[in-house]
Design goal:
The chain is an alpha+beta fold. It has 4 helices and 19 strands. 19% of the residues lie in helices and 32% in strands.
Length: 346
């Protein structure tokens, strides 16, 4: 059984990285070619000519169509062959798959399932995206050589910061404060308040008050592979479940988009959104660099975990901190099974 949910949007690329050239990618094990039409719209086609399966990305753009570099078969944005080049009759089965694609938040999104079900309204809404009082970083990405589900596990596990991110996200209480897990039809949230503690090194220069803080760790993953990590900081005594937001409240929200390349590799995209210093570009660069350095720490761990679990020769041990990830994996497996059953009946 496939481990991928297909009737959903995935991030295929950073929008500025796709232009008027043929850009090959691999997503959910499928070879795809991305490009932009002459009016700037993103297009996505199966990256394989139906004649001899030469990648279309080895061909060339002709207006809004793609010409195969082997014998000149040419395909429009819908995947329909519009020119057979070497013969007058276009073969009736000469077509390639076309994928719905769109731009949002500086990211290029692609729908991997039934095109008739693609709805741009289903893309996550980033609250305050257009609020001039907030700052959002330009999107960034990295390749992580692991199965995307190991990344999901990591993004539902606030406890790992105490050991993996000692110089950045770690702080007092991150090693032993209990978590609260909630689950619904959208995904799983693992969260906790850490009360009256010094802000961790990454956040200490960012908050707008002095002294200890009440801190919310909010780790959320939505099906199939979109994470929202939120940190909220208030002066000690003002936070907790009944927090009332005021001018001292600091919010940092990280959006993480996990795009499975195949069973062994994931393309990781992210944005960061904060409610302070919207025009401080130096601070934005510093925050972005610090976050990327922390994600490189995750990458080293996850690469090793993937190889260790793939090649294990002895049993594994579960921990209580795995509960949120287990909830998520169970819910995702149910949705994949339901999708595949519906496809089989269609």
């Amino acid at each position: 059984m496939s481990q991928y949910l297909r009737n959903t949007w995935y991030v295929a690329a950073l929008s500025p990285d796709v232009g008027r050239s043929l850009t090959p990618i691999k997503l959910l094990g499928e070879a795809i070619v991305l490009y932009r039409t002459e009016d700037g719209r993103p297009a996505a086609l199966e990256d394989a000519c139906p004649h001899r399966k030469l990648p279309l990305s080895m061909g060339r753009l002709k207006g809004d169509a793609v010409e195969c570099g082997y014998h000149g078969l040419t395909f429009d944005c819908s995947g329909r062959c519009i020119d057979a080049a070497t013969q007058a009759r276009i073969p009736p089965f000469a077509k390639v798959r076309s994928y719905p694609a769109c731009d949002r938040y500086g990211l290029l999104w692609i729908w991997m399932g039934d095109p008739a079900r693609a709805d741009e309204k289903a893309i996550i809404e980033i609250e305050n995206h257009d609020n001039p009082a907030w700052n959002i970083t330009q999107g960034d990405s990295m390749l992580i050589e692991c199965n995307y589900l190991w990344m999901v596990d990591n993004l539902l596990d606030p406890s790992h910061v105490a050991w993996v991110h000692r110089s950045s996200f770690a702080g007092a209480g991150t090693d032993n404060t209990p978590m609260q897990i909630t689950a619904d039809e959208h995904g799983v949230i693992n969260s906790r308040w850490l009360l009256d503690q010094p802000p961790p090194p990454f956040y200490a220069p960012l908050v707008k008050f002095h002294g200890n803080a009440d801190r919310l760790q909010h780790y959320e993953v939505r099906y199939p592979a979109l994470a929202v990590n939120m940190g909220i900081y208030t002066p000690a005594g003002k936070g907790g479940p009944d927090m009332v937001e005021d001018a001292d409240t600091y919010r940092m929200i990280s959006y993480h988009f996990l795009t499975p390349i195949d069973d062994d590799n994931t393309q990781y995209y992210w944005l960061q959104h904060r409610n302070t210093d919207p025009h401080d570009e130096a601070l934005t660069r510093k925050v972005a660099a610090g976050a990327k350095a922390a994600f490189e720490e995750d990458r080293a761990i996850l690469r090793a975990v993937h190889l260790g679990m793939k090649n294990k020769t002895t049993p594994t041990t579960g921990l209580l901190l795995d509960a949120a990830a287990s909830h998520f994996r169970k819910g995702l497996a149910e949705r994949i099974a339901q999708e595949q059953a519906a496809d089989a009946q269609a």
